[in-house]
Amino acid sequence: MYIDTHCHLNFPQYDADQAMVIGNAKKAGVKQFINPGVDLFSSLQAVNLACKHAGVIFAAVGIHPYEAQHDPDVSQLDKIIRDGLHQSQPQSHSTVSRVTYHVSRSIVAMGECGLDYHQYVGEEALGKKDKQKRLFADQLELALKYDLPVIFHCRDGFDDFFEVIDSVFKPTQGVYPEDLRGVIHCFSGGLQEVRQARERGFFIGFDGNVTYSKHLQSIIPSIPLSMILLETDSPYLTPAPHRGTRNEPKYIPLIADQIARLHGISVKAIEEATTANAHALFQIS
What is the assigned CATH class of domain 2-282? Predict the structure, then answer.
């Protein structure tokens, strides 16, 4: 079986046919899904969806760096996690959002959270970047508090990214604590960033852009299978030959096939390794 470790099945693009999308993915061999939030509202939706599909869909709760400009209340995210992890009886009518949801032990990660400086290319934007860094650090503190792995988002900000992580998890003489666990979602760095990720014990998530990005195709053969996770980021980053259409988790095998060819091994080996990696990181079975 495959696991799509990053898809947004609660996004509006699936409102009309969500059940069919999930069913088609299962037919393609994708049997489990990690659904991250990008703000308070979508995080609650992710929890609700995970409760509806227990054991199949798992929630991650987090606030995307682009939300930093709106000064989100991270204490509300704390409440979502606290309810989801520590209450066994269903509840409803959360005060955090207009969404009614049922809590369960379905939250398996913090995220997606991190830094995204792409919108600031060509400008200093120090104050805006500082807001992103504070929001990121606050969520890392929650991950530490609740012992959750992190789904990291990083684009055009790797220097600050690793600096913020180290400021929260505080390595001792270059040794990182065991409670630092995570995956760099939709990896866009180079081999230097792979090395930094490996030093911290991170996994690296690859998406549909591996089917057309020459940069990713050049570095993937140097990345050990023990670090790789498969993800679609649906509804975005649709792989070839379906670019230009809505992405779906059913395309995970296309990503696996590309990575297998780049590594010169069987698709079955990619399937087995990435599924084992996902189970290990998110503690699901």
Answer: alpha beta
User: Reduced to 3 DSSP states, what percent helix, strand and coil does the chain have, rounded to the nearest 5?
Assistant: 50, 15, 35
CA distance 282 to 285: 9
Q: CA of 233: how far to CAs of 58, 142, 251, in Å?
A: 15, 23, 11
The single-letter DSSP state of residue 238 is P
pLDDT, tens digit (0-9, with 9 covering 90-100), for 125-163: 999 999 999 999 999 999 999 999 999 999 999 999 999
- Taking the C-alpha atoms of residue 153 and residue 160, their distance in angstroms, rounded to an integer, is 12
Annotate 176-194 with DSSP letters as a single string. PPTT--EEEET----HHHH
Residues across the chain: 285
CB atoms under 10 Å from CB of 132, counted, come to: 26
- Residue 121: pLDDT over 90: no
Residue 37 has pLDDT above 60, yes or no: yes
Rounded to 5 degrees, what are φ and ψ at 112? -95, 140
- To the nearest whole number, what is the mean pLDDT of the chain? 92
Q: Is the pTM of this model over 0.90?
A: yes
Sign of the Cα torsion 250, 253, 259, 262 reads negative
Domain boundaries, the chain: 2-282
Q: 170 vs 129, 137, 144, 173, 175, CA distance in Å?
A: 21, 12, 12, 9, 9
Alpha helices in 147-251 (DSSP H): 158-169, 191-199, 214-219
